[in-house]
Amino acid sequence: MSRRAPRYRFDIAVRAQALLGGETAVCRTRDVSEVGLCLDTAAWFPLGTRISVSVFDPASGTALEVIGDVVREAMAPSWTLGILLIEPPLEWRALVAAAAREALPSEKPGKRFRVLVVGDDHRQRGAMALYVTSGWDVLFATDSDSVQEVISHKIELDAVIAELDAADPRLTPIMEGIRKAQPLARRIVRGIGKGANPLVHRFVERDDGLAALLDAITADIPAPGAP
């Protein structure tokens, strides 16, 4: 991304997805310019990936979509994804202008939870609003294979939330894989019913809000099924 374009600190939740398909990631902007933006995310998009970013402009109260190419991969330790925009619309320039007027201080932001959400597409869509407002770095997976794809990038997760019901037969193999690969990650199930699965730290009812999930992530709970 061009360093000649002034960049402004701007912190807002967005949704990012490769144009040719793939999982959706909920992440946050780190800074914006008239030609691009940086996202604070652990989602992996290879260099050159054409990506769609959906943004809600709080100044105008409107949503907009921008398209760009990945010019810097998100990698440890910064986990910053750099995107060069393709013909950004006038609405994007207005957003950047607002960010310039109200630029945030440039100090390093505090740590946010990095969470993997596992569930069917329709369950993910239903819960999207909840995770967008969380302020967390959220990745999504639909099955064991996509979970392994996330884990293969050696991303350290704070929690894995399965958007599945307690009796779902897919739950045990998914949580077993997480336990082996990410033993320190909190394992949570958000759905209908509660169980006695030794691989799950806590069951959260589907109708419970963000506070219940936050408590499940941060509570001092003995680790079940620890190796």
- The total of helices stands at 5
Proportion in helices: 10-25%
- Major sheet strand order: 2-3-4-7-6-5
CATH superfamily of the largest domain: Response regulator
Largest sheet: 6 strands, antiparallel, barrel
The gist of it:
The chain is α/β, with parallel strands linked by helices and 227 residues long. The protein is built from five helices and twelve strands.
Question: What report would you give on this structure?
Answer:
With 227 residues, the protein is α/β, with parallel strands linked by helices. The chain has 2 domains: 8-101, predicted glycosyltransferase like domains (Thrombin, subunit H); 114-218, Rossmann fold, CATH 3.40.50.2300. It has 5 helices and 12 strands. It has helices at 90-101, 121-132, 144-152, 171-181, 210-218; strands at residues 8-9, 13-18, 25-32, 36-40, 50-57, 62-72, 80-85, 114-118, 137-141, 159-162, 186-191, 202-205. It has a 6-stranded antiparallel barrel with strand order 2-3-4-7-6-5. Strands 9-8-10-11-12 form a 5-stranded parallel β-sheet, sandwiched between helices. The termini are far apart.
Blueprint of the fold:
Blueprint: E1 8-9, E2 13-18, E3 25-32, E4 36-40, E5 50-57, E6 62-72, E7 80-85, H1 90-101, E8 114-118, H2 121-132, E9 137-141, H3 144-152, E10 159-162, H4 171-181, E11 186-191, E12 202-205, H5 210-218
Parallel strand pairs: 8-9, 8-10, 10-11, 11-12
Antiparallel strand pairs: 1-3, 2-3, 2-5, 3-4, 4-7, 5-6, 6-7
Helix pairs in contact: 3-4
What labels describe this entry?
single chain; 227 residues; 6-stranded antiparallel β-barrel; 5-stranded parallel sheet
